[in-house]
Fold these 3 entries.
Entry 1:
Amino acid sequence: MAESESSNQTLKSEKPKPLRCIVKLGGAAITCKNELETINGTNLRLFCQQLREAMARSSVAKVFGMDWSRVSGDQIVIDDVEEPAFDLDTNFIVVHGAGSFGHFQASRSGVHKGGLQRPLVKAGFVATRISVTTLNLEIVRALAREGVPSVGVSPFASGWTTRRRNIASADASHIGEALHAGLVPVLHGDAVLDNLQECTILSGDVIIRHLAQLLLPEYVVFLTDVLGVYDRPPTDTNAILLKEIAVDEDGNWSIIKPLLGHLKKEVEITVAAHDTTGGMETKIAEAAAIAKLGIDVYITKAGTVHSLRALKGEVGNSSVPDDWLGTAIRSAKQVRPL
Amino acid sequence: MAESESSNQTLKSEKPKPLRCIVKLGGAAITCKNELETINGTNLRLFCQQLREAMARSSVAKVFGMDWSRVSGDQIVIDDVEEPAFDLDTNFIVVHGAGSFGHFQASRSGVHKGGLQRPLVKAGFVATRISVTTLNLEIVRALAREGVPSVGVSPFASGWTTRRRNIASADASHIGEALHAGLVPVLHGDAVLDNLQECTILSGDVIIRHLAQLLLPEYVVFLTDVLGVYDRPPTDTNAILLKEIAVDEDGNWSIIKPLLGHLKKEVEITVAAHDTTGGMETKIAEAAAIAKLGIDVYITKAGTVHSLRALKGEVGNSSVPDDWLGTAIRSAKQVRPL
C-alpha cells in the first residue's frame, strides 16, 4: 500500500488514511429499470446497510440517523442521543449510475452527442441533471438514514469537464479533503460541458476509473443486478460466471477461473437496452484499466452475501474464494498461477 | 462596463458577454418561514416567471419546459416542439438562502461553530446539506419548468472552503464556463469545510459578495419578504423605507433618500429569529461591500412590480424612480446629489 499512501499525502499536509474502497453502485441495482424514475427502495436500503456494516469497526455501534429532513411530509426524526458513539471507517467513495433516472432525458435530447446551443439539447442537459441529482439526493439520504455521513458531489458542480467525452479536467482535491474530514463523497454520472462538442454525459464508470487513478484505493467494487461477468447473457441457462480475470500491462485480459478451454477471450456480453453510456462491455474495459494499476476490482450482485464480502474487502489478495460468487478482475502480476 | 468585460475575459479565451445580474433569492421570500421545510410555491413560481421575463429578448417567446422529471408521481411532460425558439439573455446567476430549510438542522447541531469530528456536528453537517440541496433542487426545477436553463451548483461540491467562516478557496471558473454555455448557475448557502474550525455554514450573502467581486455583474438584486431596508422594524406602522443608500470608499454608508434629518445612521433593523447566518444587518454589510465596487445593489420584495423592474435593471443609473419601492445601495461616487 506504499504507493497508495504517498499519492494521498499530496492532498493534505497531514497524513491521511489511504482510501479503502471506491464503490460503483449500478443504476440497475437500485432503480427499477423499466419504470421511469423509480427507486428500488428495498435494494437501496440493503446496500446502505451493507456499506455501513463494511465500515463498522465494532458490531454494536448504534445507527445514528443523519437525514433530518421530512420524508413525504412526515415529521423530522432526530435521535435523542446527544453524542452517540461513531465507530465507522468511512474511507469510502460511492459513485452511482443513473438506472431509470437521467437516461430517458439524455437520450430523448441527445445530450451525449453534444450541441448544447440547440434548444432541445440545452433543455435535455437541464432535464438530465435534474433527474440524476434527484437520484443522488435520494441515495445520500438513504445512506444518511443508515448513519453513513454521506455528501452529494455532482461532477458538473465540481467543474469537471470532458474533451470529446474523455475527462479533460476533474480536480479531486476537494474529494480528498471530504474523505479526510470523515465524510463519504457520493458522485454520479452527470451531464457536463465538453471542450470540443459543448456537452456530453460523463458516465459513472469513467468517473470510477479517474478517481481510482488519482486516489489509488485498496480495491474497487462494482455492484450490479447480476452476479458478475458471464461468458454469454446471464439469462441463458448455460451461462458460466467468470470468477477471475487477469489484465496484463497492455490492458489485454484473460480468463483465469474457471479454466474453460473452449472459451474464447471474446465473451458475449449483455448491454442493457436503456444504457446510453455503455453496459457490461464498458464496465469490463474500465475495470481492466483499474486492475492494470494493481487495484483489485470485484463485480458482484448488490444486496447479497457476496456484495457484503466484496465491500469488506474479504475476497482475498491471492485467489478468489470458491464460495464467493462474482468476478474479480486484477492485474496479471498479482494473480497466483493455478 | 470596461472593467467587467476584461474580468470575464480571463475565464475563457472567447469573448464572453459580461455578467448581467446576480440575484439573491432570500429564503424568507420562497419558503414558509414558520413551517419546517415548506416551499411557498406561489412565490417561487412568481419569481421564476419574473426572472424569465427579465431575460426575454422578445415578448412572444413560448416557454419551453426543461424539467422532464416526475412531479409527485405525475407523468413526465415534454413539449412536442422539436426546436423551439430560445430567445433569452440567460446571463444571470441565482443564489438562494435556506429559509425554513437547513437552519433547523444547522442550529440543532451547531455546524456554524465547527467541530466536525463530533458525531452530532457531523450528523448535522450531513443533515444540513440534505436539507439545503433539497431546496436547491426544487428551485432549479421550478426555474426549468419556466424555461430557464438552470443548473444546481453546490458550494461544497464545488470544493469551496472557508477559513474561520471567511471564504478561503472558491474558484468560480466553472461558473463562468456555465454562464458562457448559456446555463444559469443556481447556488445556495451550504455547509462547507473550514480550514481552522473544521466546518461552518457559508451563507448565500457571503457567496453573492464573492461572486460579485470575481465576476463584476452590472447589478445585484436581493429579493426578500419586505420592500427593502427600513429605519425601524417594518412591522412598525411609522417605519420609513430607505430608498437610496450611498456607500463611500471606506464602506461607510449614508441615507440619501428620503432626506430625513432626524435619522441616525444606525437604523434599527430586524433579524429573522431563525436566521443563523445573519439577517438584514449582514445583508446591508454585504450589499455595501458590493456597492463599493461600483455595482448597484437593489433590495426589494419578491413577486412585486418592483422586483420585476429590479431584475430587468430598470431602476436606473442615476436617481431611483419615485414609483419604485425598494432600497438601492450604490457607490457614493455614482450617486447624483439631490
Entry 2:
Amino acid sequence: MDSEPRWLKELTTADSLRLLGSVAFGRMVFNQHALPAIRLLNHVVDDDAVIVRTHLGAAALGTVGMVVAYEADAIDAHTRLGWSVVVTGVARLVTDPDRVARYEQMLRPWVREQMVHVIRIDPEIVTGYEMLDGADF
Amino acid sequence: MDSEPRWLKELTTADSLRLLGSVAFGRMVFNQHALPAIRLLNHVVDDDAVIVRTHLGAAALGTVGMVVAYEADAIDAHTRLGWSVVVTGVARLVTDPDRVARYEQMLRPWVREQMVHVIRIDPEIVTGYEMLDGADF
C-alpha cells in the first residue's frame, strides 16, 4: 500500500448525486434516543432525492420528519482513491401509491424483511469529495 | 446480481471488534450544529478501542467529550454478502505523549493535512451483523 497522502477535491452537487446514484447501498445517519445512529441500507437516487425502503419497527422509520444524513462512498482499500458523498435533508414518508409502487420495483430488499415503507430524503445540503493522487492534479 | 434477500446474523462483540480492526477506514457519526454528520476516517483498533487522528479545525475534533458512533463495513456489491459493525461511545482526546507517539506510528494520514490530534472511542455499545446467504445456515 502506498503511504503517500491523498488530496481531497470537492465535488459539485451534480457529480455528488450522480456518484451516489451509481452505487446500490449507503448509510443513513440519524439520532435515536439522543445518540448518533447509523444503518446500512440500499437506495436509489430518483429526481435528485434519495429513496430507501424500511420495515415496520425499523429504527430508520423513526426518522420520518427529522433531518437525516445519507452517506455513500467507494474507496479502494489498496490505492485509497475514491469518493464520498453526504446528503442531508428531511426524511419523508412516500405515501402516493403510484410512487410507492414504482419505488418498490426499483428497490429490491437485500434482507429477508417485509419492507412496508418508502422514505424519501430531499437533499438540502449535498457535499462530496474525491480522494486523488498528487499526480491527478 | 442475485436478487434473493439475505439473512442477517448478529455478531458477538469480540467478532465485531475483530472485523472492525481488519479494515483501514470507517465513518465517524456525530452531531454538528444539531444535525447528524458523518466523516470518513482511517482507524486502528487498539485494546478494544477505536483510534482515529484528526487535524485542527476538523469537525471530528468538536466531538471530544461527546457520544459518537463509528461504523465500518465490507459488503460485496455483487453478492451483497458481508458485514457491518457499529461502535458507540464517548470520543476522548488522547493526551499521553507515549500513546500519541505510538498511535501516530500506527495511523498514517490518508490526506494531506497535518494531523495534530488523536481521538479514542471506548466502545460502550458494540453491534455487528453479517449478511449471509440462506445456504450458510
Entry 3:
Amino acid sequence: MAATDKIFQHGTLGLLVPGLFDGTITAGELLTHGDTGIGTLDGLNGEVIIINGHAYQAREDGQVREIAADETLPFASVHFEKPDISAPIEATNQADFETQVVRDYRLRNVFAAIRIDGTFKTIKTRVAPRQQPPYKTLVQATATQPEFSGEHVQGTIVGYYAPQLFQGATVGGFHLHFLSQDHQLGGHLLGFEIEQAELKIQHFADFQVHLPIDNEAYLQEEFDNETIDHAINKAER
Amino acid sequence: MAATDKIFQHGTLGLLVPGLFDGTITAGELLTHGDTGIGTLDGLNGEVIIINGHAYQAREDGQVREIAADETLPFASVHFEKPDISAPIEATNQADFETQVVRDYRLRNVFAAIRIDGTFKTIKTRVAPRQQPPYKTLVQATATQPEFSGEHVQGTIVGYYAPQLFQGATVGGFHLHFLSQDHQLGGHLLGFEIEQAELKIQHFADFQVHLPIDNEAYLQEEFDNETIDHAINKAER
C-alpha cells in the first residue's frame, strides 16, 4: 500500500538550524514512508541518499555505506517513486537545469521529486561533518565541510523541489543529493555538468510533515523564522 | 478508517493573500479528511466552522447555514476529533487563554486542535465579506468586515494552534472560529470572556498540506513570503 501521492518529511530543516541534531526516527521506520529520498543521520553525520528502498550515508571521509534499520535521523524527506515525467536533460550545468526545470514543468508552487540518472562530465559534492553534543548551530557546524568531486561519473541525483513558502519547514527550492553507481562518491550536490542523463519528475499535491513531538529539546526550542531562513540559505545552497 | 493523528489542510493561507479565492476542493471531499475544522468558502465567502462532521458557513449578513457537499473552498483545515486533553478553562479572556494553553500543554512547536465548549459571558466575531472576481488582495478584501457579538452565549470555539515556522503555509499561532449552539452567531473569533467552559486539545505529530496543483491561477502566482507574513498578521489576527 505504497502511497505515491505525497512527500513524507520527518522533522523540519528549521530544527537543524539551532543544532537539534539528535536522531528522532529510525531508518527502518522512515523507509515505511518511502523508497527514495534524502536526509542526514544522528549528529548531522553525513548526507543520506535513499534509492530503490535502500538508505546510504555519504560520510565526511568520502566513504559510502548502507544505513542499518536501527540508525536514527533528525531530518529526512522520502516518497514512493512513481515519476510522471521522464525526459532527457538538455541543460549542461546545475544553474541552467534548475531554471529550465522550474519553467518547463511548472514547479514554482508545487512539490516535486527530482531524479537524474546518467553520466556526469563533472560532479561536485560536500558532506556535513559529524557533530558531538553539545551541538553547534547548523551554520557553525557546516562552516568547513569536505568537498568531493569526480569526472565522467555514472550515478544518480535525487532530491526535491519545494515552493519558497515552505522555506524553513524544508529547503525552499531545490535540495539535491548525489550517489555514484559504484558508491565511491556521494553527498550534497554542489554542481554538475551533464554528459548524458535522464530526468524523472514526480509532482505531488501533498506534503506531510511529521514532527518529533516527544523530543524534549524540540519542544523547548525557541525558533526564530528569520534566523532559520538565513541559515538555510547559507548552509543548504 | 478515520486517521486521528494528523491535520489535513487544503491550500495555504498564503494563497489567499494575493486573492486566490476560487474554491478548489468540495466540502464533500474535505469532510472525508476530517469531521472538525475551519476554513472559508469560494470567493472568501464568510467563515467556515466544521463540527461533528457538519460544515457551516457564517455569512457576512450574520446568518449561519449548513454547507452543501458540492460547494467549494479555497482553504480549510480539518482533522478527525480525538482529544488527548480535556480540562476546565481558568482563563477568562482570549489573550490569557492563549498564553496559558501554549505554556500548560507545551504547544510552542506542535500542531494542535483546540475546541472549547461552554458559555461565554461575551463573544465577538468577524466575518469576511464575499468577493467577486477579479479578486482584491486578502488585506484589501478584509479591510472592512462586519463584526458580531453576543452575551451569555452557549457555543463552540474550534480551530488550531500551529508552530510559527508554518506561518504562511497556515496561520502561525492560534486560528479560531466560533459557532453558537443555536446557530445565531458565528465567525472568526476576535475575543471572548468565559463563564464556564471545557477545553479539549488534540496534539498532532503530522501536518499534511494538500495543494491545488491543477489550478492555473495557483500555478502562475508569484508569491512573496514577506508580503504573506505581513498580510496574515494583519488579516487573520
